[in-house]
Amino acid sequence: MKPAPFIRHVPKTLDEAVKILAQVAPQDGRVLAGGQSLVPIMAFRLAKPAHLVDINEIDGLDRIASDGTTLSIGACVRHGAFHKSVVGNPLGALLTFVARHIAHYPIRMRGTFCGSLAHADPSSEWCLTAATLDATIVARSTRGERPIPAREFFAGIMSTALAEDELLAEVRLPLLSPDTKFGFNEFSRRAGDFAMSAALVTYRLQGGKIAEARVGVGGAEPFPRRIAQAEAALNGQPPGDKAFRAAAEAAANAVEAMEDHQTSAEYRRDLVRAVVRRALEHSNR
Amino acid sequence: MTEKSSITLTINGRDHAIKVEARRTLADAIREDCGQTGTHIGCEHGVCGACTVIVDGEPVRSCLMFAAQAAGKQIRTVEGLAKGDTLHPMQQAFMDHHGLQCGFCTPGFLMLAVGVLEREPDISDDDLIDVLSSNLCRCTGYQNIIKAVRAAAKEMRK
Amino acid sequence: MSAREQHTKGSGLKWVGRAIRRLEDPALVTGQGRFTADLPAAHWVRFLRSPSAAGKIESVKAPQGATMITATDLKGVKPILPMLHKFSYRPVPQQILADGEVRFVGEAVAAVVAASEEEAEDIADAVELVIGDATPVVDARAAVASGAPQIHAEAPGNVILEGRIKTDGFDGVWAGAHKIVKVDARSRRQNATPMEARAAHAAYDAATGRVTLTCTTQMPHLMRTAIADVLGMPESDLRVIAPDVGGGFGQKMSLCAEYVVLVWLARKLKSSVAWTEDRRENLIASFHSRDQTIALEGAFDKDARLLALKADVLSNIGAYSCFPTTSGVEPLMAMAEMPGPYDFRQYECRARGAITNTCTMAAYRGVSRPVITFALERLMDKAARAFGLEPVDIRRKNLIGTFPYVSAAGLKFDEASYKQTLEMAVEHAALPAFRKRQAEARKQGRYLGIGFATFSERTGYGSPAFTARGMAITPGWETVHVSVDPSGFIEARIGSSPHGQGLRTTLAQIIADELGVEPHKIKVIHGDTDTAPYGWGTFASRSLVISGGATLIAARKVRAKLIKIASTMLEAAADDIVLEDGQAKVAGTDRTVSIAKMAREAYTQTHRFKGEIEPGLSESGTYDPPGTFSNACHVAIVEVDVETGRTRIEKFLVAEDAGRIINPMIADGQVHGGIAQGIGNALLEEIVYDDSGNPLTATLAEYMPPTAREVPEIELHHIETPSTESITKAKGLGEGGCIGAPAAIVNAINDALSPFDIVIDEMPATPQRVRAALRKAGAA
Fold first, then answer.
1. CATH of A64-174, one of 3.80.30.20, 3.90.1150.10, 3.40.50.2000, 3.30.465.10
2. Quick check: A5 and B1 CB within 8 A?
3. CB B40 within 8 A of CB B104
């Protein structure tokens, strides 16, 4: 179980990186960031890239910055960077809470936020976060910079809108209103396993009623997305069991659940119902 | 085979000048090229944690890094834990509490626990169990690994 | 004071019974352990494995210049042909590399040799392998159905063996029973998953023409015998070393075809060759286990006493039989031990092994007993429900209470504590308080359950037990050489081959007590056919009982010799000599002589003892006991999340009796580890094939051994009933943990879900299966 041979390129700047990527992409060149998803696939030889553009030695890609409205996360920011809050905004607490559900500690030391998005595993917690919060994904290539809204970014199981010569340079997450409540829940077989279903919710309270609800579901469909029916079931309702159950039911009905040899679509809908309700309960702490 | 490049790995403070292919994993380089066989390989896909080492202060899976990526970094392995004849408190605790049986997963658990506790000495007990769930052991049922790590954590805080 | 402390205190022994730190550990915690894959080699081997479950090999074409061997190159090499002289067993040959036909995905078709592992894999990837279409049979029931494709010509109907047993008078008792209770139990397929996968390194020595095979094995001597047989070479030209071995659990007990290839290549290339199995290979092509269905019926009288048991066992044994036990090991163990710890006289059983196009089955810790205990304990819980009893009460009525006891299947049980461990477990589990908590939780929509499993664990059985199985290879006995060298240090060379069990420590404790020395002065040597006496290795909860007994016998001989020497040197009567603190002393005096001095005399002053003792200070002991039964009661308290179907184990409690405990710390560790594997069996671990025989669980993300999060805190309680069938009074306990845990956990799940009136009789009880049962019952 050793990777097939490849040539490793080690650019020192982002410009250099996209230049190399433009050259090697047609020859099955790929970007190597944290490698925590890519390297296992290479070990199984399910991927045999001929070139890897290793972006770990580019200065400044581990930058996390806030301009007051947006949090920017650089291409080499590791999951572990979120173990402590990165911004004095409910978004910081949200990211910290979500981060501790990602795989395991040593994986979080290497794996990157942006790499997770580029890999686009259906069960990825960061993909769910990006979809729920309508992140902007910034693609860089020799052709320039291209911001992609999250809802246009995910295209299928491990498939995205990134062109082969584009490098995912940054993700921008909108900061949340200070009164935003969030909740997260996921279901996996063992600690640290891929989530079979996960839900992230945010909303504000206006006059004791839920407003601006966002309900994101991951792990159930080929890629995570917001579930409008569940959001509609929440908006205007007081937070509590009744509204939460209605939203969970709406989400379960709305998803086109994936099936595999061991997991029926029916079961995955059961999980969606459970994780959405539990995420909502978590938000109401 | 593809071209090999010359790199230097610094393991437990000692430099190893080696020639490796780009695809050589850090785990293989530590074992095969640097002869430090205390680090074990259990799955090569990042799940079992037997190959955990500390790179620049962070516990990482050495099967999921390429050797070339670790050049110039400080790598610590199980061979570097003891100071001379004095065992690291974690090693001592694993012996005192029977935290090992076959011993194959042990180096990975030692480096995981030491790596995390050096970064977060006051980690909560619940978080500590989460951390220990990173690695697999097939012999101990984890009972005595948990006991050992709790005891060593106390010792390391002193 | 616990029962254990009392017993140890009364034993008069200084070291046996103490939780001393292991002598194995200093090397292992410092990275100085020596495992097979640590050895450098000139050549690396990669096996090309079949991507098809069934079919004729049409062509295998290596890339230009590659070194590759196939079955064609191995002309003259015999197949692996395990044999059992019983139960119409059909011997099916396994060629070392697939010859003409493949029978499971992962079967080795060719071996590629290169200078590095990476290159060997590159070449193997480039081999063009064409396999014709054929219809595979994956499921055991489908395999034995009429019209199923024949997997081996030698085994018509795909049945490798069919055992039957029926007691006289069965039909009458069955017909007169008050109530018949039935369970259809199933355990899905597992993989033992030692953290070190298999590995082998074979090195040719040009000076002697010998090959040294270093490999991950639990039985080095038998590997030597078997490989020499298959290759037709003198056994003395092969040395097998089991260095540090990273867990085995039965998977490393059987002969691997891959190891034969390595030895063949080392001789062919006159060099060193190595193979390290990767995790995917381990999960698809190393030995599998369990995969068994048991239709079990119990006949009870009106007082809920079990009168008779009827079982139909079907084991999916995979594509080939395993050496040395044969793949009869699972069905036949089920047949012999199905009656468990219960007292009844009538028994009928049919046990079959079905050949399928899946990976070969072999022993895995517990061998069938996790499944039969599961079936039997489910039956007892179902019967309790049918009679309106607490599960504990039906066990109270039916457990064996007088000894020795001969089971309905003819096994002799020595004294044990089935009822006492049950009561101990009930007390510590605080059953009445739990029932109250359970009722309150249900009102809040939370489903808690408690499950019990009482079981016996047959351990330390010697050749009589294996003879009864009809195995062509009849293991059992063990030999130990204990010697004091001229410097006064003590060495024990043993035929067992521990790989995590701590035998270097526990055997040293036994010797220390006999010879009056400290355990750390004693080295236990094992795992090398050149230096250790012929023995059967470590498996089947046998080593501490059998090697321990042989150690005691040998140590007693050395002791006798030392006393003789001391009495000469100290001019005292033998009866007055005591051995302690590394010395012989004359009781009541200050006259002493050190063991070192006596040892020196034994080698260099033999004339002083002429006619009285043989020169040197080395003695041998062999032990071949009949077997002794350990027992335990396991209790699981679980909560089932009915929305997701997930089971969380809140608490796991054990009351166990394994006779005299040599080292309580090591004993507890064995139980802990077994329970964790039992948790995997009950809830998580499952090798899945699709209908075409493709394995779908080839990574550790899909095949799921439990982590520290899934194993709860385990509470252990002990009783020590000294064994009368073991000269150390110790019983074995290596497998009990994984035998009882699955039954206790699934019983607890059923108890939790009793309001829904559903039944879970299948393991692992995955969230998917639990939810499906709930949904079927119309419960949410």
1. 3.30.465.10
2. yes
3. yes
